Amino acid sequence: MADEQIPRIVVGIDGSAGSMAALDWAVQEAQLRATTVHTVMAWQHPSAYGASNAFGLGMDPSFGTQQALASVAETKASQLVDEASQGHEVPISWEAIEGHPALALLSAVGDSDLLVVGSRGHGGFVGALLGSVSQHVVTHAHCPVVVIPGRERIKSHGKKKSDEAEAGER
Amino acid sequence: MDRHSGKGIDITVGFDGSAASRQALSWAVDCAGDSSSPIHVVGAFSAEADESEETARSRTEAMLDDALAELENPDRIDRVAHHGDPVEVLLRCSSSTDLLVMGRHGTSQLIHSSMGSVGDACARLAECPVVIVPPPR
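The joint structure predicted for all components is written out below.
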């Protein structure tokens, strides 16, 4: 369990548009609360999600592959955090955790933290069920979980009220 | 108004009288902090077989009033009871608020709507960010 002394905002990231929207929201919320953001990227060996023969994917299922996958996840997490760190002062940390994304997030978050996830990650489609990771953490987390809607969902409803609010303020 | 625009926030709490929804309301009050942000507490109601819609509305409004009476500073908090399925009511609210806050129900409390678990459905379909607050441990 993470340090519960300082409530943080923890975000699951996988590089998908949904997870980047979640990270954007988390950074802005952290500014309001004067707290920090911690991002978690989970990675798994292909055999863990059903590719029983990793050779079929052109991979050598050895310890070297394990290290290579970890390294790819770390590089990606670091890159995404660098991009998200532009233009504000909110400290953003990251970690890459081996395991199922939902379990990785639950292991990284403390009871007093706020967990932020996109409504779905890679592989979703408009109108899809809530992503399995989001659904799992919403059901099992001991802290509040914020689910950020996909941007296309907002667009699909046409004019958003923020547009109307701006119009009203003119 | 966008929660993050710096111009204020608008928080809506789905409330059904359960321990989880009380926790959600408490979280929303903490979240608003010292700001003058309005908090709307929303209850959805449907008439039971032996009551009129007006009776059901009064019953729900009384439940919301009780919840507000327990708060230390209820001034900026308003409450409204809407007729309809909880998911439909809250989804309508999600188009005109910045943050929709609701409690997570345990399996012992079978509070579901025709669209499935209220929390799941709202997180899936709402136009604004949805906060699911776990019940007290």
